[in-house]
UniProtKB/TrEMBL annotation, chain A:
Free-text function comment from the UniProt entry: Allows the formation of correctly charged Gln-tRNA(Gln) through the transamidation of misacylated Glu-tRNA(Gln) in the mitochondria. The reaction takes place in the presence of glutamine and ATP through an activated gamma-phospho-Glu-tRNA(Gln).
Entry's family note: Belongs to the amidase family. GatA subfamily.
Pfam family, one: Amidase
GO molecular function: ATP binding; glutaminyl-tRNA synthase (glutamine-hydrolyzing) activity
Subunit structure, interactors included: Subunit of the heterotrimeric GatCAB amidotransferase (AdT) complex, composed of A, B and C subunits.
GO terms under cellular component: glutamyl-tRNA(Gln) amidotransferase complex; mitochondrion
Protein name from the UniProt record: Glutamyl-tRNA(Gln) amidotransferase subunit A, mitochondrial
Keyword Mitochondrion included in the entry's annotation: yes
Record flagged with keyword Aminoacyl-tRNA synthetase: no
TrEMBL record, chain B:
Protein name in UniProt: Glutamyl-tRNA(Gln) amidotransferase subunit C, mitochondrial
BP-aspect Gene Ontology terms: glutaminyl-tRNAGln biosynthesis via transamidation; mitochondrial translation; regulation of translational fidelity
Superkingdom as given in the UniProt entry: Eukaryota
Coiled-coil residues: none
Taxonomic source organism: Macrostomum lignano
Length: 493, 183
């Protein structure tokens, strides 16, 4: 409709904004704040740039000047960032239209998007948020969107946004993408600047992308990637824009890592993985080889130590003096005020990670836990390095099951959940590798999305995207956004 | 700036070609699977490949006692607040105990960061001051006084939070742990 001129970009944008406005506070709970006019692309850029039809949402951790962040009481008041994340600036420069900030687990900690200040996010697959003919679910009987960037996934899956940003430290963009039936792209560590991203684990955090198609995800990546003088850990050279031709996918050697058949993996996820590998081998004639990443079972344990240790360090800045939540304290000492501020600002998940992190960093524990975790980190990375000498890409699951219900999910605590759900995702963060998750089927019975993950060597996004795009066209997954009444995708054609 | 995007178009209005059931292309009639068992690609393991690590292989579990609670609270300036938080931290430590089974000798160098492993330069900015308006710097502080941040006096140890509170937390966590292992 845009190309034929029947709908102008401005009409598209105002429809998108209206839909988002309706959705704030709705049961979907994807958006927590709407973008102000000053956040939109400068007038000169409008109607130009590679993203001029993109209505995007930003996860609540990349800072946006003038907009509060993080899903936690700590920063819910007394924090208006005066800076805007490089990733967002670059999207706006390309003409993308920012709709607002999306819901998430506090500071990105969690795999269910259930713990945030703004409440849990519903997986749009359970019921259509825009349709009034479907009776709403009860307060707890819905499927979770996954976390921590569940709001972004729900926004894209339901068609409220064409693309969205997320943060991925241990799987926080790929798990929700898998649960919500959309594409999740985690770039190589350092390919996209982290300037402005509220840090969880500096060594592992990646600004990641959610979109309904691999093509859209790559368009967003191309706009954002590249060196940034404000992020010293960014890649030193500008990467090539990600693009591919069909030939790029031909002749690739695919590795199937045995250790990604994990405890708790459902039969339907195994079937999904199997179908994808079968298609690559039998239909496309690609060589598929068994590979081994022997330290995989230890990865989640190493990740838990490294994550808690960095969290303990990164959360130390939230003392309420220069910014953030500050309570009235009768005792009037630094120790008592800081403790009181942090008790009020941090939920038990954050506090337990800080305390566990400091436990691992105690002099008496440092070698046995923290240094050991760093050694295992090295072994994990070397596993991947070795495997990519004999294959070009890995194909494996992302989430170990389809989306659970909220009621089931909250039966166990956050720590238990992340330790059992992130089994196929966090090792990719430890190795810093690029990964794309895409939906390839629906689960019998529940009708929930199931996904596969494509992992490549560092900076090999083009190769990963080529295979992901090939799987995408084979799968012909029925995007929820195409059926939703608020869908923007319908208007873009 | 030209984008080299020659990828596939969006899959509009098409039904899925397959729902998630096992693909039959890898199963010949001659090797039909046993009843109830799906036939998957030969490279996809049907069962988890992870070895179950028995509790007896691990070092004895650390109890988070009241001294440790006091130390961690002091270092973190974060309170445990409930016995449940103590339990969660104890479980986090137990979860990490498996790392101690790995024999990683001195030839395995602990990782510091990926950019370092990849040989990236990670340049630092020049050490020159950047002008910032004072109002911007102070704008997020809940309390300021005459253009200063306000912090309470330091070097005052927090009032002894009471041995009883710490002991109660430690005890509560222990009983939760033993209750869950009994069930």
């Amino acid at each position: 409709a845009i190309s034929s001129g029947a709908i102008t970009p401005d009409l598209l944008r105002s429809s998108a904004v209206a839909a988002c406005r309706r959705s704030v506070g709705s049961s979907l709970n994807a958006f927590v704040s709407l973008a102000e006019p000053q956040h939109q692309p400068p007038v000169a850029n409008r109607g130009q740039g590679s993203l001029y039809n993109f209505c995007t949402a930003g996860c609540d951790t990349p800072g946006l000047a003038g907009s509060a962040t993080c899903g936690s009481p700590t920063l819910a008041e007394n924090f208006l960032p005066s800076y805007t994340a490089t990733s967002i600036i670059r999207l706006l420069d390309e003409g993308a239209w920012l709709l607002g900030k999306t819901n998430l687990d506090p500071f990105g900690m969690g795999s269910g998007c259930s713990d945030g200040l703004h409440g849990p996010v519903r997986n749009p697959w359970r019921s259509s948020p825009c349709s009034s003919s479907v009776a709403p679910d009860s307060a707890t009987n819905f499927y979770i969107a996954g976390g921590s960037s569940g709001g972004s996934a729900a926004a894209v899956a339901s068609g409220l946004a064409v693309g969205a940003l997320a943060s991925d430290t241990g799987g926080s963009s790929r798990i929700p993408a898998a649960f919500c039936g959309i594409v999740g792209l985690k770039p190589t560590y350092g390919r996209v600047s982290r300037h402005g991203l509220v840090p969880l684990v500096n060594a592992l955090d990646c600004v990641s992308i959610m979109a309904n198609t691999v093509t859209d995800a790559c368009l967003l990546l191309n706009a954002m990637q590249g060196p940034d003088e404000n992020d010293s850990t960014c890649c030193p050279e500008r990467p090539e824009p990600v693009g591919w031709s069909d030939e790029l996918a031909a002749g690739l050697k695919i590795g199937v890592p045995a250790e990604f058949s994990t405890p708790g993996m459902s039969a339907s996820v195994l079937d999904t993985w199997s179908s994808a590998v079968t298609h690559l081998e039998s239909d496309l004639g690609l060589t598929c080889l068994p590979v081994s990443l022997p330290h995989t079972p230890l990865s989640i344990k190493a990740y838990s130590v490294l994550c808690c240790a960095e969290v303990a360090s990164n959360m130390a800045r939230y003392d309420g003096i220069e910014f953030g939540l500050r309570v009235r304290d009768s005792e009037n000492s630094v120790e008592s005020l800081y403790t009181a501020n942090r008790l009020a600002g941090f939920n038990s998940v954050i506090r337990s990670r800080v305390l566990a992190g400091n436990y691992f960093l105690l002099r008496r524990n440092y070698k046995a836990y923290y240094e050991q975790a760093r050694k295992v980190w090295r072994l994990i990375k070397e596993d991947f390095d070795r495997v990519f000498q004999s294959v070009d890409l890995l194909v494996c699951p992302a989430a170990i099951t389809a989306a659970p219900t909220y009621r089931d999910f909250v039966q166990a605590d956050n720590r238990y959940r992340t330790s059992t759900m992130d089994l196929c995702t966090q090792s990719v963060n430890l190795a810093g590798l690029p990964s794309i998750v895409l939906p390839t089927g629906l689960e019998e019975g529940t009708g929930l999305p199931l996904a596969v993950q494509v992992i490549g060597p560092a900076m090999a996004e083009a190769r990963v995207a080529a295979l992901a795009a090939s799987l995408e066209s084979w799968a012909r997954f029925p995007l929820l956004a195409e059926s939703s009444e608020c869908s923007l995708l319908r208007l873009l054609d | 700036r030209a984008l080299l995007l020659l990828g596939p178009q969006r899959p509009w209005q098409r039904l899925p070609r397959h729902l998630c059931s096992s693909s039959s292309s890898s199963c010949g009639a001659a090797d039909s699977p046993p009843a109830g068992r799906r036939c998957r690609h030969r490279l996809v393991p049907d069962a988890p490949t992870w070895r179950n690590v028995a509790d007896s292989e691990l070092p004895p579990p650390t109890a988070i006692d009241s001294d440790t609670i006091a130390l961690l609270e002091r270092l973190s300036l974060v309170q445990f607040d409930t016995a449940d938080t103590v339990r969660v931290v104890a479980e986090a430590v137990r979860f990490a105990d498996e790392l101690r089974l790995v024999h990683a000798g001195p030839e395995v160098e602990p990782m510091t960061s990926l950019p370092e492993a990849w040989g990236w330069r990670c340049p630092l900015r020049a050490d020159t001051p950047a002008e910032q308006p004072r109002t911007a710097v102070l704008s997020n502080a809940a309390e300021t006084e005459e253009h200063y941040f306000v912090a309470p006096p330091g070097n005052i140890a927090a009032k002894d939070s009471g041995r009883e509170r710490l002991d109660r937390l430690a005890e509560g966590a222990k009983s939760k742990a033993s209750r869950s292992s009994r069930s």
